[in-house]
């Protein structure tokens, strides 16, 4: 009986959140270990289906870097990264589109559907969802001190999101699963960072939440302890000190951009924890870092 009462208390704790979030849109960036380990994959799909059944509208944007690397290596092509960005030539972008838009996207759709959901796979090309342009990186030359342009190849950045297709599929009860690829100004395929795509889509939908799944507890301080809440002022300080760096930078920037775009709250959480989404959304303490205005 004690165990049953504890289960009831968990449901009661979740009740105000369920009431507040009914009918709201959550954009979720899916990546890391949660996409690899079978138990975590199933737990994620169950979380998404549960959110849908209780009236929350989940929109999923997924990555897939490790799988792309494996396929590239099998095809005799070595992955190359410049300042954390994948250099993407024509052959590489074909692999990226095949893996993200085909293999991974359909696996996620199938997994959600097998758990009772109604998912549909999309990319930034579908319904002109994402208008993109080639991304340009600049750095100061070590020799001259003048800015130099770094060519990343077919890497893109979001110019504009047209959410009409998302409104359409959501109205019919489908869960959109989006691969972060799109077309550029010359109709060339562009590979886009999934964190930035998730942030841009969250802004366009004026989502209640943007949630990024990672392979860390969240954002950590210099002593490797979890920071539960951050705002722009503290983020700026942590970046200047190098506490936030590397792969966490695009996640933080995506969250900041989303908050500018009327998203109410953003979260960086540990996708290695089973049912991480439910623990962050429906408990009083949460498990990761929330970033607020």
Task: Walk me through the topology.
Elements lengths: L1 H20 L3 E6 L7 H16 L3 E6 L2 H10 L6 E2 L2 E2 L3 H25 L4 E5 L6 E11 L6 E15 L2 H8 L3 E5 L1 E3 L5 E4 L1 H12 L3 E6 L14 E2 L1 H9 L7 H13 L4 E6 L5 H6 L7 E3 L2
Parallel strand pairs: 1-2, 1-11, 2-8, 5-8, 7-10, 11-13, 12-14
Antiparallel strand pairs: 3-4, 6-7, 9-10, 13-14
Report on the structure:
Helix content is 41%, strand content 26%. With 293 residues, the protein is an alpha/beta fold. The strands form 3 sheets. It has an 8-stranded mixed β-sheet, sandwiched between helices. A 4-stranded mixed β-sheet has the order 6-7-10-9. A two-stranded antiparallel ribbon has the order 3-4. α2 (38-53) packs across α4 (90-114), α3 (65-74) packs across α4 (90-114) and α6 (194-205) runs parallel beside α8. It is globular and about 70 Å long. The model has no long low-confidence stretch (mean pLDDT 89).
Name some characteristics of this structure.
single chain; 293 residues; alpha/beta; 9 helices; 14 strands; 41% helix; globular
Query: Strand percentage, roughly?
Result: 25-35%
The shape is: globular
Give the SSE string.
Answer: HEHEHEEHEEEHEEEHEEHHEHE
Helix-strand makeup class: alpha/beta
Poorly predicted ranges:
none
Radius of gyration: 19 Å
Q: Can I get a quick summary?
A:
With 293 residues, the chain is α/β, with parallel strands linked by helices.
